[in-house]
Amino acid sequence: MAYTTTAKSSATRVLLVAPLSGMLLPIDRVPDPVFAQKMVGDGISIDPTSQILQAPCDGEVIQLHPSNHAITLRTAEGLEVLMHIGLDTVTLRGQGFSPKVAVGDRVKVGDPLIAFDADYVALHAVSLLTQVVITNSDRVAQFVPQTGNVVAGRDMVLELALSAAATGALSTEGNVVRSEEIVIPNPEGLHARPSAVLVNLAKKYKAELRLRRGNDQANARSVVALMGMQINRGDVVILEGRGDDAEGAIAELSEAIRSGLGEEGAKPMPAPSSIAQMEEAKPAPRPRSEDPNVILGVAASPGMAVGYLHQVKNQEIAVEEVGGTPNQEQRKLEQAIEQARLEVEALRAKVHGQGDPKKAAIFAAHQEILEDPEIYDRTASLITEGKSAAYAWKHVYTSQANQLAKLQNTLLAERANDLRDVGGRVLRILTGVTTETATYPEQTVLVAEDLTPSDMATLDRTRVIGFCTVAGGSTSHVAILARSMDIPAIAGSEERVMGLADGMPVILDGSKGRLRLNPSSEEMESTRQRIQRVAEKRKVDFAAREQAATTRDGHPIEVVANIGNQEEAEKSIGLGGEGVGLLRTEFVFMESASAPSEEVQSQIYGNIAAVMKGRPVIIRTLDVGGDKPLPYMPMPHEENPFLGERGIRIGFDRPEILRTQMRAILRASQQGTVRIMFPMIARLDEIRMAKAMLEEERQRLGVAPIEVGIMIEVPSAAVMADQFAQEVDFFSIGTNDLTQYTLAMDRGHPKLAPLIDGLDPGVLRLIDLTVRGASRYGKWVGVCGGIGSDPQAIPILIGLGVKELSVSIPTIPSIKAQIRNLSLVECRELASRALAAETAAAVRDLSPFIEE
């Protein structure tokens, strides 16, 4: 179907068909000055009644905004047609939008481009009005907009008569004028509105103007080109101009960008050079460890190791840029990927045969990377340009790994290591470089920039007793493997560790994230003896794992597990666990490409309840937020995500997700003893709202009521515990968040993290308030945070009146054994003294030292 005509005047005319059904509105009546004043370009607006944006013409997708609310097509005549769904929809960060095409796709009239949830967008955005705009309107001599109601894919909305030639030549004579570095202050970066303002300013001048960010650049007169750069808040850009009036243009445009291009909420940010000057005046930051013989890092895998350092250097593989013919190089690539797939499958089978499905799943993810079409297509494209297969593959996988590593989502950033692992495997096959099987001395503690899952799968456990890496974190696949293999490990350590000599004696404490350098022979022997005693004690504790956790004077304590899936539930039972004190349901959401359905969730929760065979299972509703977002649930940028939309607040903001999860939990309660727990409750009306929603869903399902509890993570909830106790059946104290909120310290802060201790007297007093408030109304209190597994904290918590400890699975036998050796009377005395202490260190001095 052709939508281009030639009139008698010889002017080419282009017809645009309605991309949505609805009522047409003149563009100058849109309640947004950027569109109404035609800063983006001329066009028309639609008040939509349909929910799938369709192509209004044949063309190529040249831009799709990361938030999926705007898309641009280029027609055969060179017109750039921007369709912008709603007003201020960029702030939704993609929520409610589902793109059906990608940049580079060619589309026909009526093809679906973006599906959107009209109810959600209307509720969360300023308006649903959708703009259809020609961003290079200077190429159009006449716009003829239609009026009235239109049907998507059928009725015409715009008739365009193209200009015979562009007007006004640019001035390109003279020297290049450059601005200083400018930091983008706009909360959502340069989306359509600020880009349009910049373009209109640029059009005042004759100079050729370009915006640069690193190696990327765009014409400052093109809205589409600017949006295509996907410039975000905090990005550093430079303006360049050439022409007679370039100097004036650069001056005005620089100040406009620096001030946010008139966008609300954009405040000027200092350029990197200014920041550097300010930092020069500050004293140098103190090293992470003040003791030159101590290296600090992140606790990645618990346990201790006494041995000798051995450096592992990364293998750098050189590649030739040019190879054989494209067909030859393409065959090499395909053969190398197939060989790598066989090797990864062998590794997966090996670890699966060892009875650890979690480890096997990591290598299953590696197989998916090998089948990633984006990596393959980009490599193939470089090969067709004359590059060798090795050069093209190395370029693509390293650049994508570097992009992943820069992501703010820690979990996703740490997956960059998996991509490097897989990429390196294929590259070694392509280049014929073999990986030498390392032979390490006995009692080796490895030190490396980073290790890969493949390194871990082939590690000689008879010689390697621990490792320390500069990169990585506690959630990396390498850390997961280390814990499953019971190898003490530290990640994210100080970089000076890479300068240490092979053979240096060390003591590695994976539980505390500390590497002790050059210990005396007496210290090493003492630590070895301690490790031996702990190992022997573990055997004794394991043998008695089914005995109840009852103090010497007959006071029972329930010891339950913190889990994330059915496999962990089964493991906890095998170690003597008496139930589940915290089922972290965010893992169910993180492992899904989209929000899991009610049916999927119900089956997962129900299976866990059935496995527990009547033991209590406490299911916490989804606990995510700006600090730990989900890829399919984008959230607006927050200056302080720990004080923003987290926990139950996300549930209230997205009630369809919370209600779906509530129904799934209620259905799962038919399979066992299920309780529901709400996170981040700070105000009474929050728990009342949550309970009302739960009751509505319960009545719809016609199931029996279940017990309801809340996490005590916010000081306000602890202070008002007596009032909250009248609303719920139980409390579970999340000491990790409660500690950081009480002390006003981010537990991920590199300098403050060592100062954060759940045994701080301020935190203990809030726990005491919580227990007293609960006891007044006959409600019980549990602890599911980190100090619940801390042997020094356990007698204090019992003394304060805590009835349940929800702990990490491996610690269950030892904690039950410890409780059996305690006296409630002595615990109460200890707790009283701890409440009167002045510091966390003083509290730990009071509590007896327990060998772990």
Number of strands: 36
Distance between the termini: 75 Å
Tally of DSSP helical segments: 29
State the major sheet: 8 strands, antiparallel
The oligomeric status of these chains comes to single chain
Share of residues in helices: 25-40%
Mean pLDDT over the residues: 83
Radius of gyration: 31 Å
How would you sum up this structure, described in words?
By secondary structure, this protein is an alpha/beta fold. It has 29 helices and 36 strands. The strands form six sheets. An eight-stranded antiparallel beta sheet has the order 10-6-7-8-12-4-3-14. It has an eight-stranded mixed beta sheet with strand order 21-28-27-23-24-25-26-22. An eight-stranded parallel beta barrel has the order 29-30-31-32-33-34-35-36, surrounded by six helices. It is globular, with a radius of gyration of 31 Å. Helix 15 packs across helix 27.
Which terms summarize this structure?
single chain; 852 residues; alpha/beta
Map the helices and strands.
Layout: E1 4-6, E2 12-17, E3 22-26, H1 33-36, E4 42-48, E5 52-54, E6 59-64, E7 70-74, E8 80-84, E9 97-99, E10 106-107, E11 112-116, H2 118-124, E12 130-134, E13 140-145, E14 149-150, E15 156-162, E16 176-178, E17 182-183, H3 192-202, E18 208-213, E19 216-219, H4 223-228, E20 236-242, H5 246-258, H6 272-280, E21 294-296, E22 298-301, E23 304-312, H7 326-353, H8 357-370, H9 373-384, H10 389-405, H11 410-413, H12 416-431, E24 444-448, H13 453-457, E25 464-469, H14 477-484, E26 489-491, E27 505-509, E28 514-517, H15 521-543, E29 558-563, H16 566-574, E30 580-584, H17 586-590, H18 598-612, E31 617-620, H19 648-653, H20 655-668, E32 674-678, H21 684-701, E33 708-712, H22 715-719, H23 721-724, E34 730-733, H24 735-743, H25 761-775, E35 780-783, H26 794-800, E36 804-807, H27 812-820, H28 824-836, H29 840-846
Parallel strand pairs: 23-24, 24-25, 25-26, 29-30, 29-36, 30-31, 31-32, 32-33, 33-34, 34-35, 35-36
Antiparallel strand pairs: 1-2, 2-15, 3-4, 3-14, 4-12, 5-11, 6-7, 6-10, 7-8, 8-12, 9-11, 13-15, 16-20, 17-20, 18-19, 18-20, 21-28, 22-26, 23-27, 27-28
